[in-house]
Every structure is written in structure tokens, then in C-alpha cells.
TrEMBL record:
Stated name of the protein: Glycosyltransferase involved in cell wall bisynthesis
Alphabetical keyword list: Cell membrane, Glycosyltransferase, Lipopolysaccharide biosynthesis, Membrane, Transferase, Transmembrane, Transmembrane helix
GO CC, one annotated term: plasma membrane
Keyword Cell membrane: yes
GO MF term list: undecaprenyl-phosphate 4-deoxy-4-formamido-L-arabinose transferase activity
CDD domains: DPM_DPG-synthase_like (cd04179)
InterPro entries linked to this entry: Glyco_trans_2-like, Glycosyltransferase_2, Nucleotide-diphossugar_trans
Domain Glycosyltransferase 2-like: from-to ranges: 16-178
Pfam family membership, one: Glycos_transf_2
PANTHER family: UNDECAPRENYL-PHOSPHATE 4-DEOXY-4-FORMAMIDO-L-ARABINOSE TRANSFERASE (PTHR48090:SF3), UNDECAPRENYL-PHOSPHATE 4-DEOXY-4-FORMAMIDO-L-ARABINOSE TRANSFERASE-RELATED (PTHR48090)
Amino acid sequence: MHVDHDANADNRPTVSVVIPMHNEQGAVSGLVQGISAAASELPAFEIIAVDDGSTDGTYEALKEMQKDCPQLRILQHRIAGGQSAAVHSGVKAARANICCTLDGDGQNPPEELPKIWAPLVSGDDASIGLVAGQRVGRKDTASKKLASRFANALRGWMLKDGTRDTGCGFKAFRTQAFLDLPFFNHMHRYLPALFKAYGWNIALVDVAHQQRLSGESKYTNFGRAMVGIWDLFGVVWLTRRAKSVSAKEASRS
């Protein structure tokens, strides 16, 4: 993989890996170690763990890992704000021009990360704003997979976003392009549609999936469905009203 070394001319990391975490104490060590190993091929990287109001020992576990991982930065929400809020806080704090996300429960194997950031780090296609993972061989319950399949089909029909699995935590994107998007809760499930609406191309990458390392799901199937219906109508409205032009300052003559 070609690495753009110019990205580090100002001592910024090549990639910032953002992990939203809520009561994931048991997953901390494996995730931080796995991300560090996967990112060892990069000139520089940082890991931004966002403790989203955890009530277990997640924060303490992160502080312990920080002793041996200088690339680890820790942000903390006093109260839980949800996955999208945690991701947004992490991206706002990121020092790299490229951010990569994965779930904090360990179901996204860190060794898959290089496949996600490769299209952006290579710099071969400046039109790509987002690389989205699509899970294969999902290790979820039958009911959760069925609910997800229905939600993805409905979302795909309404948004025409071209991806079968927007619920996958693996995403890589241009940091500023993400911050230019309108923020709302649960936006992490609609990033392909939002990036396309704002003029970016997206790349899709198949990724592995594994059993949860700790904790339990933060959503019920019913609760996810109810929130998702309202979100869908909102995202349809947003994508149809997205700003479609950008300005370029004229050079002084």
C-alpha cells in the first residue's frame, strides 16, 4: 500500500482511529492492542477512545492501557450521549486528515482496519470521501440479523445509498468532510447517503465480524426500528436539501 508521507509534514498522524465505548471494560485491552498492531504499518497514528458515560470500569481500563500505548488518547462524556455523539466528539478531537471508526464491543476485528483506510491513505482517488465496511458472516442472533436485513432493505429503497449494511462500525472518511455534515443522533447509520448527498463518492469493503468481547447490545430490535423510521424520513429530507455547490477563492492577480 502506498502511504502519503506528506500527510505527516506537520507531525500529524496519518490516521486517527476513533472508538466509541459505553460499558466495554472487557474489550478495551484487546481492541487497543489490536489497533496498535494493525496500524504499525503507518508512519504515525493515534487512537481516540471516547468513553460515553460508562458506569463500569471502561475509563479505568483505558487509563491502564494508556501507560503502554502513547498513541492512545481518552475522551470522556459525563453522561451517555449515544454512538453518533461519541464518534462526533472523537472526530472533532482528531489530528489526522483521515479518521477510521470501529465499534467498541470488539465485534469489528481490528486486523481488518488496513482494508478500510487503504483507499483514502493511498490518495489514488480524491473523489472518495467515505469507505464503508460491509459485514460478512455476521455473528449476531437470528432475530437481530433479520431485523437488520429488513432495515437495510427499507433504507436502501428510500435513500438509494448503494450499500447493504450501513450498521457496520467500520468506516473511514476524510475528517473535514465528516465535520461538514449536519450532526444528529444516529447519523452514523446514514453516512453513505450523507456523503453522497454532499458530493463525495463512497467505496465499499467486505469485512469480517466476530462475537462480542464484552457488554451487551445497547439497542433492542424494536427500539432500533422505531428510531430508525423517524431517522429515515429526516435523512431523506436532508439529502434532498443538501448544499450541492462549493466556492473557490479567486487568486490575486
